[in-house]
Amino acid sequence: MHKYIFRRLLLLIPVLLGVTFIVFTIMSFTPGDPAQLMLGESAPPEAVEQLRAEMGLDDPFIVQYLRFVGNAIKGDFGRSYTTKREVFSEIFARFPNTLILAAVGVAIAVAIGIPVGIISATRQYSLIDSISMIGALLGVSMPNFWLGLMLILVFSVGLGWLPFAGFESAKSIILPAITLGTGAAAIITRMTRSSMLEVIRQDYIRTARAKGVSEKKVVNKHALKNALIPVITVVGLQFGYLLGGAVLTETVFSWPGVGRLLVEAIRQKDTPTVLASVVFMATTFSFVNLLVDILYAYVDPRIKSQYSK
């Protein structure tokens, strides 16, 4: 297991290099001059050119990228062009908000997805099964930003029950968490149903039923434990996705998280903040995947024996 973890951590290096190179290239060749943005439109050209030289923006693209990589290896991702603060201090200040939102979103997804998936599998082709699969299809198909806007329109503007912006109280998290959890719930529902259908058709399930074991015990004790193995992977991946992919939802609800920070930095062409945010999200997602794989190995001993080779 230790060798497997070490190999996965080594593979993270080329992943981060590839991600940062792509993002750095996009940010470098998009319109806009960070020096001009920092000094304002009315700044004289001489001051802009001097600031560009001080920031190293006049250097060739590859020199700028290698300088960024060299500083990043030392743990220095630079300072924000707009706030002048160290970019990782801003990311760490906002990450708890993103973590809370992702955790509540996954909790909602699991609370809906697993029970509905189990009921749908045990009552295949019934009306409940059809309704749940239609709901799952709608949940997967609806864009998060559209669902968020509809929730704001109904529950905030129309009914006035819930706030739609910021993070001022516990009520503030309800709408963005539902927005995030809906799509994840649909995916978990489909995976749980598929996995349960595969397991309940196995010979040992037929044997348990032939011995007179109650259907409830067959489902909860014999089938569910084995069916949840692939579901664990999906839940972990969804959690990692929500940690790194809540950009649109945080923007719609003005949620003070890393995703909104990234959008603001892109608008202002704040390259250090964009790069640090992307590296942070990619690293977080990779570590979540690694933890899911480790958990998967402990749930299924057969997988653990493969990792130890």
Structure description:
By secondary structure, the chain is an all-alpha fold. The chain has 2 domains: 31-76, no CATH class; 88-307, MetI-like (MetI-like fold, Orthogonal Bundle), CATH 1.10.3720. 78% of the residues lie in helices and 0% in strands. It contains 14 helices and no strands. It has helices at 2-29, 34-39, 45-55, 61-73, 87-122, 127-141, 144-158, 174-199, 203-210, 215-245, 247-252, 258-267, 271-299, 301-307. The longest helix is centred in the middle third of the chain and has 36 residues, at 87-122. The termini are close together. Its main location: membrane. Keywords: Cell membrane, Ion transport, Membrane, Nickel, Nickel transport, Transmembrane, Transmembrane helix, Transport. The chain crosses the membrane at residues 9-29, 99-122, 134-161, 173-192, 227-253, 273-299. One of its GO terms (molecular function) is nickel cation transmembrane transporter activity. It is a multi-pass membrane protein.
Spell out the key features of this protein.
mainly alpha; MetI-like fold; single chain; 309 residues
Set down the secondary structure blueprint.
Blueprint: H1 2-29, H2 34-39, H3 45-55, H4 61-73, H5 87-122, H6 127-141, H7 144-158, H8 174-199, H9 203-210, H10 215-245, H11 247-252, H12 258-267, H13 271-299, H14 301-307
Helix pairs in contact: 1-13, 5-6, 5-8, 5-10, 6-8, 7-8, 8-10, 10-13, 12-13, 13-14
